[in-house]
């Protein structure tokens, strides 16, 4: 094993290249910029292409094009930039073009944006929220696999602490199993034969090869997202079996919550934690099991209450759900404020548990 | 076991570089390290903090440390709250005269280091941050001294190669400071 001291951006760049990513675009925006810089440094050496796009809209659509031609491709941004990308992400979901979006946000206020989309049509976006850099290395590689497995755009939702903290990591290629052949890519081989392929959100086909049309196609897409929802839920939990209080958190905040809850447990509190690893599909059945018998289901997130909705939908007793997080932003606007701190979280949890 | 260092000072003192040097040295020794930086938009004069954690197994530490084993105080400004997080018996390197070494909790082990005077004495006036790092590492043996010098050299960009020797002198001078006083 060989450890390298990499910040999250560099670690995710290495992991993406290890996963076979050969096309990357982006437009600088902190804290995503570091990943873009690392890709521009590392990707050409790996035989790939990295482009600094003129805008996020251009970037995501170039990525869509590269992915349609068969490349493992990715893009990324933060907050406002992801908002600009939503139309293309929706198109890709509906025309089944797989790529990875690195949503390196400034805080946790973009949970809805990540999990509810903002584009048009019936679609969902598989979203993983790593709690730290080593997990981001794994998630990055898993996301390229999931994108190809389900022919869908997928998202990694991180934050400044994930993007900028340097950690000793050993990035090794991971094998997540076989994938279906990419027999749908627009590689030009069918040109002029009458059998050229097509990627079209409306699936209306061609004169000599009528497609299923929007009704049949979008039903099939909806069925596919139902299957993904059933297959791809991931979560972690600890000490929930006898817990009177279960604290639910995601991403970086969950790492802090795990630390605080372990301390409270050691002091004799009957408390455990639950972390959705996939924000969509939300691990609802697991949350229901984990919160069965709990008197307090506390939601800690650094926003005004977004994942809170999913917890309310799935908790065993929705009357037990209470919000103990909140908006907390640094003066710069570029990172978290004082609420993302173990002593502050401990106070919130103790105040929320009855 | 994980050992944590918090470095607190003012932008321009070399806070980020000394923390990065220590984290890289530990990494090159094959150990797990974390470096979490916290600084404002200003290049100089603003708050500058860094946390370094080193361990022999994958780290559990949070990127914002709830408690720490040791600290380097390079400046009295922006240092509020830092010593509150030090565990009892924690090691403190206090950069005098910018930091008053008598202003700490009595349970802490405080070592006063006049980094600027020591840096000037070895004709490395730009490297007082490395004096603090050399002193800290002599006290704690977080990494081998040679690993510290090698990491410093590795981090120098090509256009700063000429500082390698004076930086190394500063690291050694820092170590000598505490070896005399300790």
From TrEMBL, chain A:
Signal peptide: none annotated. Residues 14-175 form the Pyruvate flavodoxin/ferredoxin oxidoreductase pyrimidine binding domain. Keywords: Oxidoreductase. InterPro entries: 2-oxoacid_oxidoreductase (IPR052368), PFOR_II (IPR033412), Pyrv_Fd/Flavodoxin_OxRdtase_N (IPR002880), THDP-binding (IPR029061), Transketo_C/PFOR_II (IPR009014). Gene3D superfamilies: 3.40.50.920, 3.40.50.970. CDD domains: TPP_PYR_PFOR_IOR-alpha_like. It holds the Pfam family POR_N. Residues 243-327 form the Pyruvate:ferredoxin oxidoreductase core domain. One of its GO terms (molecular function) is oxidoreductase activity. This is 3-methyl-2-oxobutanoate dehydrogenase subunit VorB. It comes from Dactylosporangium siamense. The gene is vorA.
Automatic annotation (TrEMBL), chain B:
This is Indolepyruvate oxidoreductase. The keyword Oxidoreductase applies. It holds the Pfam family POR. It comes from Dactylosporangium siamense. InterPro entries: 2-oxoglutarate_synth_KorC (IPR052554), Pyrv/ketoisovalerate_OxRed_cat (IPR019752), Pyrv_flavodox_OxRed_cen (IPR002869). Keywords: Oxidoreductase. The keyword Membrane does not apply. Gene3D superfamilies: Pyruvate-ferredoxin oxidoreductase, PFOR, domain III. Residues 11-175 form the Pyruvate/ketoisovalerate oxidoreductase catalytic domain. One of its GO terms (molecular function) is oxidoreductase activity, acting on the aldehyde or oxo group of donors.
């Amino acid at each position: 094993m060989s450890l390298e001291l990499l910040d999250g951006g560099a670690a995710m760049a290495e992991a993406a290249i290890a996963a076979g990513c050969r096309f990357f675009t982006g437009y600088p925006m902190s804290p995503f910029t570091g990943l873009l810089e690392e890709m521009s440094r590392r990707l050409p050496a790996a035989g790939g292409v990295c482009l600094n796009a003129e805008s996020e809209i251009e970037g995501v659509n170039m990525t869509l094009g590269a992915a349609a031609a068969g490349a493992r491709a990715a893009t990324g941004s933060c907050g406002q930039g992801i908002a600009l990308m939503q139309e293309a992400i929706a198109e890709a979901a509906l025309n089944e073009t797989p790529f990875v979006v690195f949503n390196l946000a400034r805080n946790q206020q973009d949970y809805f944006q990540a999990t509810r989309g903002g584009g048009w049509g019936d679609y969902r976006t598989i979203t993983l929220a790593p709690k730290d850099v080593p997990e981001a290395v794994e998630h990055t590689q898993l996301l390229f696999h999931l994108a190809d497995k389900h022919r869908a755009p997928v998202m990694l939702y991180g934050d400044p602490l994930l993007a900028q903290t340097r950690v000793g990591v050993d990035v090794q290629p991971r094998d997540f199993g076989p994938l279906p052949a990419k027999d749908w890519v627009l590689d030009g081989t069918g040109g002029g034969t009458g059998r050229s392929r097509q990627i079209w959100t409306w699936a209306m086909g061609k004169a000599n090869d009528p497609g299923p049309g929007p009704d049949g196609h979008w039903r099939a897409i909806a069925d596919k997202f139902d299957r993904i929802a059933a297959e791809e839920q991931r979560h972690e939990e600890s000490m929930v079996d006898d817990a009177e209080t279960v604290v639910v958190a995601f991403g970086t905040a969950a790492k802090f919550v795990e630390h605080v809850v372990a301390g409270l447990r050691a002091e004799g509190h009957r408390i455990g934690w639950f972390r959705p690893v996939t924000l969509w599909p939300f691990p609802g059945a697991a949350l229901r099991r984990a919160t069965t018998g709990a008197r307090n289901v506390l939601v800690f997130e650094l926003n005004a209450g977004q994942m809170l909705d999913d917890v309310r939908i799935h908790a065993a007793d929705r009357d037990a759900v209470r919000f103990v997080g909140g908006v907390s932003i640094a003066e710069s606007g570029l990172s978290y404020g004082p609420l993302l701190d173990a002593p502050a979280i401990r106070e919130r949890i103790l105040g929320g548990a009855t | 076991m994980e050992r944590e260092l918090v470095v607190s000072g003012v932008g321009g003192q070399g806070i980020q570089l000394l923390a990065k040097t220590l984290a890289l040295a530990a990494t090159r020794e094959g150990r797990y390290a974390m470096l979490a930086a916290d600084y404002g938009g200003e290049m100089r004069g603003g708050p500058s903090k860094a946390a370094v954690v080193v361990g022999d197994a994958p780290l559990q530490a949070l990127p914002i440390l709830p408690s720490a084993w040791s600290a380097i105080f390079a400046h009295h400004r922006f240092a509020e709250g830092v010593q509150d997080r030090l565990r009892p018996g924690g090691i403190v390197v206090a950069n005098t005269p910018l930091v008053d070494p008598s202003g700490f909790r009595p349970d802490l082990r405080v070592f006063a280091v006049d980094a600027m005077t020591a840096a000037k004495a070895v004709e490395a006036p730009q490297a007082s941050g490395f004096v603090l790092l050399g002193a800290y590492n002599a006290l704690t043996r977080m990494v081998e001294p040679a690993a510290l010098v090698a990491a410093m050299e590795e981090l120098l960009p090509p256009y700063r190669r000429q500082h390698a020797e004076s930086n190394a002198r500063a690291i050694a001078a820092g170590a000598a400071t505490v070896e005399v006083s300790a």
